[in-house]
């Protein structure tokens, strides 16, 4: 019985061969085999040369520094070692090798095999030298025959140990390389970008309804580089396909989150674009055409709307002049003549077209719109038609490997809804074949069917490009007047939102100027609009990275892929993965090199994104509000959010730079509140339900957020302030109440003792559809409403300290409200007043005890209480309407609903005059949801700070 000492050639993974390992065998005989089935853990002590640390690794890979005297472990795992077999996923190995033992060499991990180091705000690099247990842990496992003596078994095992970058061949069965670190995971993506458009003609609560739904239209592909900071485990082992069959020559790489219970948020996440939006539609004005209602799909949507009408009078009322011109031209008669015919005959023809459209994917219609000339004119369409024919007969997805024609890839991207990789993973090639065949068939039927005639007319006479070309000739007032009542005049009215027949002579001259400003704006509208689409996609991907990391467990794969190591390109991708960089592996479809399996980040974040466009002020029936502002001032009028959405403001002027922020904030508040209130009215039966409108309300609300700034105004965040921020998050149910400020030191190291540096903190309220339905399941808790409003206003004011903070503490205090309520008119005095304050709602932030308010602040305080009363009264009125509907009361008209809740709107309008205050309606409903069992929210606390000279963001999400 003796310890085993290995050095030199026996330790090829020790850099330079300098140093030795001593394996403490204890009472075990080294000249005999290990006892079968007995779990054994050996201490392994490192001895570096000259007393220095031992470097584990090799040229071209990161190295692990193991201090002299430092201890690692060697563990024996048998098929009966239940927990360890599950931990390392060895069930399949032992099924085929029941008598073997798997040895695992571990450095830098806890006894449970967990890395307990701190977050490094730097990417892992091949040149890095890392400290075992602080920066990184490493484990190497290998299956071995159990029969040799312990000395030979251990010597043979250590002779095979290798770090990830040293792999030049796939791992053998039972061989596993695993490392854990705190740092960045690098991801790449070729992200499919598409948009869908919905809108409402008005912001008014009573008139809030869906104008139209213009479904998904794929724009192109965007190259992205994403990174998420946190704690990760990267494992490399023999590859198996989803059916469990071995993949010879391939290695499987799986990334998981570690320490999920300690850190519920990512240390940081960000997304940057690595390329411009590629593969854009041939028509440079497709997005604008959708907004203006003159794309092929727009006109087909119009016919679907006509199908719902009952007579000629309703058609005349619902449609604008351009829409009526389209319908009458398609039917082949002047509108005045048509009205003498049976409306039912018109509806029958419309029905044939709409029924035919219903059998097609919108993707097919879009393709015919984009490639109309190529599909209908053989001389132009030879290449497009040829590639579509190939796709219609594509034998398998494997046929797309290698050097694929760029046009073919563009078509594949469009026909798979911007998600070719997802389709290849989850769908058979048959659906792609069917869509390609349908595009060809529809193109060939243009001259022979009612649907074909509708498409040709929409494309050749009522499309955006032919209308714009004609519009260029309108350069004088007489020419513009001559178009009144005609097609081009109707198009001008749709763009400007003005009836030409009602304009005065002086206004017509201005109208000509406006028309040419619109034409100038059209020239680069699409470029500006697509830039905003890209920004929205980046913001959504960033938020999704935070969300998916926060919701992941230790068992779930964030990234899971197989890499072909038989090629230099495959080895290059593996070596990048060995430093947590999966950009090259994920950025392009190379199935001969990389095969993706189910991964939370790869499937939920970096495959495709659909930008939801909400047009505020779109059209009623088919009467458009006017798109002039949107076209000329796209940069101001189209606003992105972080949930993959754009809001297009056509009826709100955001061009005044000095007032834009205030107008935008007030408009956002009004939109958020009215959408939410209208949803509650329809979903609870107060207003008659419209399924299409209800879906629109839900989709819009779940993409909205209300933001409340919480950070103090200074360059130094103390531990006490950090505790306050977390206390707020606990109070609103965003983070676990057991989370302590000290627990995030690993994510947020102080720059000095008690100083976390400058920090901005915000509370973001968002909703999930499943949670919204729970609102008002029980009667409204008025006390909770008032407490929530006061808490949010207090946090808004207290961050400024001084006089405004004093006002916040006074407003928070229930006794002062009672004083005001007893005599509102005489509450404000002509001299300063001292008020005692109630205890703070936050354990980490003490109330001042007493505050002194001058006369002006007393007036503001009274105004705040009046607003609170109005908001509360409005919410109680809403609650009363909901409860009445539940008792079987009849639905009321939307305008009556708006009047019943008028005090809410008035309160919010008044609240907007208090620059530091906020619309608390979202926060109130968020608090109500937090108190309802089974409700779902997506609210969050966001901390933005600077660590090691770089800006970082942390997002704490409410529980799913």
Q: What's this entry about, in short?
A:
The chain is an alpha+beta fold. It has 36 helices and 27 strands. The chain has a 16-stranded mixed β-sheet that branches.
Structural class, from helix and strand content?
A: alpha+beta
Q: Biggest β-sheet: count, sense, barrel?
A: 16 strands, mixed
- Distinct helical segment count: 36
In terms of DSSP E residues, the strand content is 15-25%
Which word captures the global form? globular
Number of strands: 27
* Low-confidence region ranges: none
- Rg estimate, integer Å: 33 Å
User: What is the averaged pLDDT score?
Assistant: 89
End-to-end distance, in Å? 56 Å
Percent helix range:
40-55%
Would you mind describing this structure in some detail?
There is one protein chain. The protein is α+β, with helices and mostly antiparallel strands and 960 residues long. 42% of the residues lie in helices and 20% in strands. The strands form five sheets. It has a 16-stranded mixed β-sheet that branches. The radius of gyration is 33 Å and the shape is globular.
Which tags fit this structure?
16-stranded mixed β-sheet, four-stranded antiparallel β-sheet, 960 residues, alpha+beta
Per-chain topology:
Layout: E1 4-7, E2 20-24, E3 40-47, E4 54-56, E5 63-66, E6 71-77, H1 82-87, H2 91-96, E7 101-107, E8 129-131, E9 136-144, H3 150-158, E10 176-200, E11 213-240, E12 246-257, E13 268-273, H4 286-292, H5 296-306, H6 312-318, H7 321-331, H8 335-338, H9 343-358, H10 362-370, H11 372-376, H12 378-392, H13 406-415, H14 420-426, H15 430-444, H16 450-460, H17 464-471, H18 477-482, H19 487-496, H20 505-551, E14 557-564, H21 568-577, E15 581-582, H22 583-586, E16 594-596, H23 600-604, E17 608-616, E18 619-620, E19 623-624, H24 628-632, H25 634-637, E20 638-640, E21 645-649, H26 657-683, H27 691-702, E22 706-709, H28 719-731, E23 759-765, H29 769-772, H30 782-798, H31 802-812, H32 814-822, E24 833-836, E25 850-853, H33 855-886, H34 894-900, H35 902-911, H36 921-930, E26 940-947, E27 950-957
Parallel strand pairs: 5-8, 10-15, 10-17, 17-21
Antiparallel strand pairs: 1-2, 2-3, 3-6, 4-5, 6-7, 7-9, 9-10, 10-11, 11-12, 11-13, 12-14, 14-16, 18-19, 20-21, 22-23, 23-26, 24-25, 26-27
């Amino acid at each position: 019985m003796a310890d085993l000492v290995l050095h030199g050639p026996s330790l090829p993974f020790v850099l330079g061969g300098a140093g030795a390992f001593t394996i403490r065998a204890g009472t075990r005989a080294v000249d005999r085999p290990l006892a079968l089935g007995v779990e054994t853990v050996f201490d392994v002590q490192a001895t570096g040369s000259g007393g220095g640390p031992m470097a584990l690794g090799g040229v071209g890979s990161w190295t692990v520094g193991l201090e002299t005297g430092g201890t690692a472990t060697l563990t024996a795992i048998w098929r009966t070692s239940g927990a360890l077999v599950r931990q390392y996923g060895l069930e399949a190995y032992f099924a085929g090798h029941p008598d073997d033992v798997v040895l695992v060499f571990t450095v830098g991990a806890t006894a449970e095999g967990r890395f307990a180091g701190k977050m490094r705000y730097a990417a892992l690099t091949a040149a890095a030298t890392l400290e075992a247990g602080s920066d990184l842990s490493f484990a190497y496992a290998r299956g071995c025959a159990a029969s040799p003596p312990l000395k030979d078994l251990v010597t043979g095992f250590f002779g095979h140990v290798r770090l990830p970058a040293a792999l030049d061949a796939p791992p053998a069965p039972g061989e596993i390389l695993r490392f854990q670190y705190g740092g960045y995971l690098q991801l790449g993506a070729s992200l499919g970008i598409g948009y869908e458009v919905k809108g409402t003609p008005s912001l008014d609560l009573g008139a809030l309804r869906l104008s139209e739904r213009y479904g998904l239209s794929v724009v192109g592909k965007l190259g992205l580089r994403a990174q998420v900071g946190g704690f990760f485990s990267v494992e490399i082992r023999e590859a198996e396909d989803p059916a469990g069959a071995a993949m010879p020559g391939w290695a499987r790489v799986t990334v998981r989150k570690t320490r999920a219970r300690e850190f519920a948020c990512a240390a940081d996440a960000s997304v940057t674009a690595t390329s411009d939006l590629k593969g854009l539609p041939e028509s440079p004005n497709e997005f604008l055409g959708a907004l203006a209602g003159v794309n092929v799909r727009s006109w087909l949507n119009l016919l679907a709307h006509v199908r719902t009408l009952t007579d000629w009078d309703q058609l005349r009322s619902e449609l604008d002049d351009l829409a009526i011109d389209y319908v009458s031209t398609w039917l082949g008669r002047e509108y005045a003549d048509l009205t003498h015919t049976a409306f039912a005959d018109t509806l029958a023809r419309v029905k044939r077209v709409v029924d035919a459209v219903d059998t097609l994917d919108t993707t097919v219609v879009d393709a015919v719109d984009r490639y109309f000339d190529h599909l209908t004119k053989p001389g132009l369409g030879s290449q497009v038609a040829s590639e579509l024919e190939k796709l219609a007969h594509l034998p398998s997805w494997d046929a797309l490997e290698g050097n694929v024609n760029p046009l073919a890839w563009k078509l594949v991207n469009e026909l798979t809804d911007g998600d070719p990789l997802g389709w290849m993973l989850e769908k058979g090639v048959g659906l792609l074949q069917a869509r390609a065949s349908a595009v060809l068939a529809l193109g060939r039927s243009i001259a022979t069917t009612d649907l074909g005639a509708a498409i040709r007319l929409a494309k050749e006479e009522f499309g955006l490009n032919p209308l714009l070309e004609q519009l260029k000739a309108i350069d004088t007032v007489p020419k513009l007047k001559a178009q009144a009542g005609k097609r081009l005049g109707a198009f001008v009215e749709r763009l400007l939102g003005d009836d030409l027949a009602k304009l005065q002579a002086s206004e017509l001259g201005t109208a000509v100027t406006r028309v040419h400003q619109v034409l100038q704006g059209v020239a680069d509208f699409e470029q500006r609009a697509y830039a905003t689409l890209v920004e929205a996609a980046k913001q959504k991907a960033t938020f999704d990275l935070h969300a998916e990391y926060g919701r992941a467990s230790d068992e779930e794969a964030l990234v899971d892929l197989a890499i072909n190591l038989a090629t230099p390109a495959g080895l290059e991708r593996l070596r990048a993965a060995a430093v947590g960089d999966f950009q090259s592996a994920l950025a392009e479809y190379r199935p001969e090199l990389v095969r993706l399996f189910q991964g939370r980040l790869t499937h939920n974040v970096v495959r495709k994104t659909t930008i939801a466009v909400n047009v505020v002020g779109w059209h009623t029936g088919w009467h458009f509000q006017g798109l002039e502002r949107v076209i000329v001032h796209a940069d101001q009028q189209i606003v992105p959010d972080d949930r993959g959405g754009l809001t297009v403001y056509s009826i709100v002027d955001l061009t005044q730079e000095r007032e834009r922020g205030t107008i935008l904030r007030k408009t956002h508040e009004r939109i958020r509140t009215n959408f939410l209130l209208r949803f509650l009215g329809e979903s609870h039966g107060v207003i008659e339900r419209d399924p299409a409108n209800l879906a629109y309300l839900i989709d819009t609300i779940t993409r909205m957020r209300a933001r409340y700034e919480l950070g103090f105004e200074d360059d130094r965040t103390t531990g006490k302030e950090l505790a306050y921020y977390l206390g707020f998050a606990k109070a609103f149910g965003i983070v676990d109440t057991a989370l302590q400020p000290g627990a995030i030191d690993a994510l947020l190291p102080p720059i000095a003792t008690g100083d976390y540096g400058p920090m901005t903190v915000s509370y973001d309220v968002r909703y999930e559809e499943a949670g919204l339905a729970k609102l008002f399941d029980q009667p409204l808790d008025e006390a909770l409403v008032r407490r929530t409003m006061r808490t949010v206003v207090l946090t808004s004011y207290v961050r400024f300290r001084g006089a405004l903070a004093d006002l916040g503490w006074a407003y928070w205090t229930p006794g002062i409200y009672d004083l005001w309520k007893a005599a509102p008119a005489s509450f404000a005095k002509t001299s300063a007043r001292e008020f005692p304050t109630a205890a703070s709602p936050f354990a980490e932030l003490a109330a001042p005890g007493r505050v002194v308010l001058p006369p002006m602040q007393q007036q503001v305080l009274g105004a705040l209480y009046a607003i609170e009363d109005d908001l509360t009264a409005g919410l109680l009125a809403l609650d009363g309407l909901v409860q009445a509907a539940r008792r079987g009361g009849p639905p009321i008209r939307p305008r009556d609903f708006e009047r019943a809740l008028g005090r809410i709107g008035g309160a919010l309008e008044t609240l907007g005059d208090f620059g530091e205050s906020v619309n608390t309606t979202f926060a109130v409903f968020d608090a109500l949801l937090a108190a309802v069992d089974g409700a779902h929210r997506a609210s969050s606390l966001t901390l933005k700070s600077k660590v090691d000279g770089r800006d970082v963001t942390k997002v704490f999400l409410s529980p799913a």
